[in-house]
Amino acid sequence: MFTSTTPSQTPASYPHDKGRFKIIIAYWTVLIVAAPVWWVLTTVQRLPLPVAQVKEVGSKHIRIPIDVNVDVTDGLCDATTLAAKLQIAWDKTHGTEPSDIWSVLDVRMGALGSHRPDISHAVYNITVRYGYDNDPAIVHDRSFEVFSRSGCDGQLVDKVSSSLRALLTPPTHNTELRVAQYSPRYRLAFSLLNEDASFGGAVSSWTVERAIKEYLQPTLNELNILHNFTIESQVQFYAPLTTEPVPAQDGYALNQEQLTIFVNSAEWSLSSSVSNDPVLHFVLFVPSLARRPLYIQDSQGKITQFNSFLVPQWGGIAILNPTSKGSENLVLAPHDLKPIFHTFRRQLEGLLGVPALPPPVGLRLDRGINSKQVLSGWQLDTLLRRRALENIQGSVQTLNSIVGLAGQIENMPVGPSVRDDVLSALDELSQTHNATHPTQTLTHSALSLQLASRAFFNPNMVGLLYFPAEHKYAVYTPLFAPIAVPLVVSCKASSYQSRGEPVPLGSLDIVYTPAADINPILRIVNRPRQASISSVRSTSAHLSPPPFGGISSALEMGELDPALATLDISHLIEPVTEIQANISVERACEVLLEKKEWCVAVMTQAAGAQPVCTGLFDFSDANAYMHLAVTANSLTPEDLQNDRISQIVSSARLRKEVPVELACNLSEKNPLVMLRNDTSLTTLLEIFSRGTHRVLVEGPEQQVKGIITDSALVKYFASNHDKITTSPVITQVIYTSLLDLGVITPPPIVSASPDSTVLDAMTLMSREGVSSIAVLHPGPDIGVLISTVTVTDIGQLVIPSESKSVLSMKLGAFVSDIKNPHGMINGEDLYPVYSVLPTSTLGYTIEKLLATKVHRVFVADEPEPSSPPFGQGNLKGVVSLVDILAVFARHLGIEANPGLMRERRRRGSSTSVSSTSTKSHHSSLRRNSVIGNPAVLGSPRIMT
Question: InterPro entries this protein is in (predicted)?
Fold first, then answer.
């Protein structure tokens, strides 16, 4: 506990007490005045809702009056008597189930002329004529005729009563899940999908506009009293299935389980135009020529009569098997589309809930009355009543939910817009009870449901729905606690000070130190403590130097040779091959092979502008691209979230050419670095010593003047080591062994065995971010270096082969095909293995790297007598061009970090070999679990 060493003084001895007290009063005044303002601004507005009216509407049952006129001709019987019998039969069977949606109907039957002629609600006519008893009834508009020869007996009453029930109260329990939710507007999307037009025999176009006008427009015209329709159509030539059809007699078939996943939403572009209107899809699917004919099986495995099916609340699908067996594309004329659009019409009626005419009583439309009529007035009125009742039920449930949520959640806002929508919805509901025609009932019920839904989903209402009181405390406590604590402490200190008492601050390490000439202060006493591991790591990370920042400091400290700083990079510039960004990756690889280049510049040119370089492409990118192509089927959804990978995979699956601009720096080894022509050699050395392999030099008007590679800089240092600096430091380094310089990167080294495949090597180089791997001898001599495989070797063999079988080639055979011919033709080692000894000098290592044109050289011991033929001894490590440039940089006073880019490429060389001694070693090929048979995974598509 710390205490003040200054004696206590009286309040009068402090000349600034009054000012300090005024400051405290000012703070408290602002807090007190702001508290009501804060309270008002944060108060949730909750206007009262008409709870009683909502409950009243929910308990009130709507009644829909229906008048039925009965007429009997030819003196068969008395119409009044028949009407009375029909009324008794109706009352016995109607309304027995309270949950029945049709229990609200109030049907009144009477003889023709008995009802008031001025009534505005629905009126229907039943006419009994002389005829055969088995003659079907004739339906037209809101009347139907029944035939009888036996008069008004019980058989006629049963026949008319059953027909009346089928027309006025059709069953709904079987169609509830199938019918789409009511909407005043629908979009009808007609799609012609060819499974794969590349096989030939596809349907290239269809006269959909004429077909809709001839076969579907009459139905749409009659349904206009319920819905407004917007029609759109499309044709697709590649729409693959998600499942393989099963072989069937004379063709192929889809079983019931396969129909549930028939719609391939991922591959089919069925999305409609931007609109909030619900969409009903009607798909005409044409199977590929290799899968025709394609049928649908029922649950018992038998071929169905109709080659179509309905997707509940989504749309309908019809399968078309063209009879033509040729490979020429077809055009569907209107007469070809007639049966298909009759199917679409039935599916549309089913989705919209249009009741069918009951077949048991043989009802049919009378085409003689109205040749254009496709739906009777009975069907339309029943559909109107059903939709109206559904809307009323949904509106009542939504209003009850609003009232219930507002009562349960105290902080739910209820603003004027919500209250007005609720009141308007209640008003529309009350008008549905007074409506006398089905159209009026539907209009008011639809508007009521729309208003109730808008109130329920009001943004201001749901804004704080998931913000309970506990969240308020979590927000306000961190806000008010820092404000309240100083105010309370200062008030308490002022209270003690006004009484002339010392300030007891308890266990807080705070000392109140009054002074004569300054304001009293509060001083926090810091106690020393040990630093934690996390803080040490944070400090270490913070102290790390920024990129490319060591040259100026080295010059200031005199560590950098001034002569070196005067050299520029102009004499290192080499010509660069340029390619257009829109050419294919395969063509870019061919350019690398034809020009014998390590790297090409990818150029993009806008209209009327100069070409601009957008990236670099080399064999490492080609290897990454080919590996991505052969393993595309094993990618996870997370992998496909990468936009570039997704575009490459999509193009490969569609057998499209992939532009090379997508493959630029796919290996993450080719960042685009542009330097000016007058850039100093020291800057270039610092860039290369941190992992970059090549840079472009910018000419006039931002054009590419040329390229400089890390190998060119290494060659320059090796050739001019005695001239670069005034001191012999570079010369000494050149003639020093690798072991003494400590430049060898020790194991683990990325490697594989001769029995591994080319695909395995591609996977290792792509995953580990390296340009070469070591090939080690298996068996008792594990660790003996046999050869190396580079991305350039992969490009020289895989790309020209144009065959996926090369991916399964063993690395042993691969080395023979690639290495041996070069050794015999170019005069190099017969079995060129790119390795050096630990005792080799840096100069010899540089010569080996430049002669073999590789980025890395492996370090191995002298081979043992028991080593296999052409072996190079136990693998000890690896040395790269970047490592060598880093040695030069450090000895010239420039800070180098050769592992910087390696860390960005998943730490560069990952382990696949571990050495336990000079003669006993262990090696293993690290395989990725996604690597499989290349024949299954596919191969990169090489274009010629």
Answer: CBS_dom, CBS_dom_sf, PtdIno-glycan_biosynth_class_S
